[in-house]
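Sample 1 of the test manifest.
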Amino acid sequence: MSPSNKNDQLDLGLRKFIKDLGYIAGGSVLLASTPWLQSCTPEKLEEIKGQKARIAFIGTGSRGVYHIHNLLNIPHAEIVALCDNYPPNLKTASDLCPKAKTYTDYKKMLESKDIDGVIISTPLNWHAPMVLDSLAAGKHTFCEKAMALTMDECKSIYDSYQKTNKVLYFGMQRLFDEKYIKALQMIHSGLIGDVVGMRCHWFRNNDWRRPVPSPELERKINWRLYKESSAGLMTELATHQLEVSNWAMKRIPDSVIGMGDIVFWKDGREVNDSISLTYHYKNNVKTTYETLISNKFNGMGEQVLGNKGTMELAKGQYFFEDAEPAPAILQLINQMESKAFSTVPIAGPSWVPEIATQHKPHYVIDGPISINPGISTTGVDKDGSDLLLSAFCQASITGEKAKNIVEECYCSTVLCLMGNQAIEQQKKIDFPEKYKIPYLNF
Amino acid sequence: MNHPYSNYYESSSLFHGSLLNIMGTRFDILFVIENKEIGEALWDNIQTELIRLDKLFNRFDIESEVSQINSSAFLSPYIVSSEMWDILLSCKKYHQQTYGLFDITLQNLNRVLLNIKDKSIIFVDKDLHIDFGGYAKGYAIDKIKNILIENNVQNSLVNFGNSSILALGKHPYGDCWSIGIENPYQKGEMLGEYKLKDEALSTSGNMPSNSKHLVNPFTGNFNEEKKMVSIITKDSTDAEVLSTSLMIAQIEKREEILHHFNTSKIFVYNL
C-alpha cells in the first residue's frame, strides 16, 4: 500500500467513526453526549484540508513510538522534532522519521517556533513539568495518561489549562473508542435499567519489567516500579477504567477504601502488584477495582451492572438479567434512540418459544469488534488511540479546545492517587475539598 | 411463568413491554408515552388483559373456559360467559364468510350447536373440541388496541409472536411503521416490506421447524405447503382469520372470501 492510500484510509476512518456514531452534518444532536468530539468533526477537518500540524515528540520509548506509528498515518500531521534523553530510543524514533530534528533537552526543543503541537510520553513524574512548560511555550499539548504523579501537580495542570488558550489532550483513548461510546449511550438511554454497581479489573501475569542493559539504568528504564517516578498500577491501568466508571455513573466517587500489597513480584520494586479498592458514589453505588499481575485468568474488563442487565464494556457485549427482548424489537428501539427510521424484519409465521438460554450475549456494534485483551504494556490497535491522536493533530491546526478530556483525566487521576492513599494510610479517603473542580457532580 | 419484562427509554419517551410466554408465544409492545409511571400503569393494564384472555383461550390450561367447554359440552349444554358467547357467534360468522375454511373445531363447526336462549353450547359429536389457535391473538390485539386508544396512545407497535402485528399511528421518526418479512426457509432473505399505519398485519405459513399446525377442516390433513400468506386489514381479528383461511384456500376461492371483508391487502408467497 502506498503512503497516500494509507492516508486516505485513516482519513476515512475518522469520518466513518463519527458517522457511525450517528453524527449528522449540521445537526450534531448525538454529539451532545460526546462533547469532546465536537471539535473534530469531518466538516471541521474539511476546513483545514491540505494543512499539516507540525508535531514534536517528548519521549520516544515504547508508547512514544506507538504514537509515531499512528501519526505517520495521519494526513494532517507531520513529525518535525523528536526528543529523548535515552539515546537508543531516540535513534529508533529518528529512524522512523529521518526528517525530524532530534533533541536531548526538551526545553531546548520547546524554544523552536516551528512546532504546533507536542506529544509527551514520558515517565509519570515528568508529566507535570513538561505539560506546564509546553503550554507556557505556547504549544498545543498532548500528554499520556495519567495526568501527573501528585494531586498538587494535577491541580497545577488543571489551573494552567483554565488560563491558557492552548489545546490540551490526555491519552484517554476510551473516549474515542466506538464500542465504549455506543455502549455508554445505550447505558444512559436505560438499556440495562438503573446502574447499580460496577466491577473493573485488570489482570496480567508478568513482572512488568523492561530489560535493562546495565544496572545504573534500572530506575530510568523500569520507572513504573518506583514511587519517585510512578504511582504504580493505579495510574498506569486504573486511570482508564475509573474514567469509564465515572462516565457510566455520570458522577465522581466521594470516597475510596481498599488494600494493596506486593504479593508475588518481590524483586525490589516499590509499587504494589496486587490492589483491591472500592469506590463509593454519593448515590451509594460502588465501583470495585481489582488488579493483580501474577494471574491473568480474568484478563481486563469493565462491567456496568444494571438492574435489568449487564454491559461488558471492554468486550462490547451486554446481557439481560431475565427476559430477553427480541432482537428485531431491540433493533427498533436502538433505531428510535438514534432518531432513525427503517424497516425491521419482524413479520413471519408464528414464533415458537425456544428453551430460554440464560445470559446470551448481545453486541454493541455490528460486525467485528476489536477487543483489548489487556496484555500489551504498550498499546493495541483500534482502541481509539489513533483517532484520539488524529483529533489532537486537527486541534493543533484549528486551536479549538476539546471539551471534557482534561477534566476526565484530572478526575480519574486524582481518584487513582486517592486509592493509593487509602492503601498507604489503611483508611477511607474522602475526595479532598481542595482538589474538587467544577465538573460533574459527586 | 409469563416472564414479564419492561423498560422505559427516557430520551425517546419509549416504553417497551414484553411477555415471553403468553398464548404459546411471545408478546412485545412499544408505545410512545410522555412519562414512565403512566407507561408502567398502562403496561400493567395490558398484562392483566393478556393474562385474562390467556385464561379464556388456553386449551392446555384445565381451568380455562375453553377447557371447561371441551370437557363438558358433549351432549349436555354448557352455559358460557357472555364474552365467550360473542366470540362463538363471531367464529360462526367467520366460518360462513370463509366457506367453512375457518373452523375452530378444525373439523366441522356445524356439529357445534349454540342456543341463544341460555347462551349455551353443545357438541353433537363425541370427539369434538374447539381451538382458538387461529383467532385468539387477533382478538387479543383488538382488545389491546382499545386500551391504547382509551389511554390516548397515538403511536404503538404490537408484535404478538411475529405472526400478528398491530401498527398504531406511526414510527416516531417515520410516516408509518415499516415491517419487513423474512423467508422462514432462508434466514436473512427479506421477501418484502409493508408500510403500516393504523393497520393490522397477520401472517400464516409453515416453517421448517413447524410444518404441521394448519389443518384443512374438509380433508382433516395438515397443510404442509412451503407457502406464506400475509394479510393487512384495519381489524386484527379479521386479519388473523383471513391469513389462516387463505393459507389453505384454493386460488379461485380466495377472491370470494375476500369479497366479505373490508379493504384487505393480501400477499401470497410461494417459497
